[in-house]
Amino acid sequence: MKKVIVFSFMLLALTSFKALAQTDEQATRPVKTGDEWQMPKDVLLRAKAFSEGLQKSLGLDEAATKKVFNVYMGNTKSVDEIRMGHASEKEKKEALAANQAEFDQKLKGILSPAQFDIYLKNKPRAKN
């Protein structure tokens, strides 16, 4: 009986120490309300791969590549908001198509007409 009481006391002591051992970082971490957007960790890699892919396939210079990178980064938040929204699948599909058309118009302002035609020809098509 004494062993059970001692074991229970030690278990209680260990769990209370763990509860009290929170660091300042854990204690001061802000609480999310649910409407904050956090950029996915791989978005920089995707933007870099997209812009470098266009640089290689279209022969873009550094300035145009940087503009394409920035346009892609600017488009990421709106795409994620559409995908995570509470709309129906049909509404999401329509919103993503409209967003893609807007993205293409921004690229049209950066690329030459010949480069833009090549981009449209090589762009992967969405499955219906």
TrEMBL record:
<keyword id="KW-0732">Signal</keyword>
<protein>
    <recommendedName>
        <fullName>DUF4890 domain-containing protein</fullName>
    </recommendedName>
</protein>
<feature type="signal peptide">
    <location>
        <begin position="1"/>
        <end position="21"/>
    </location>
</feature>
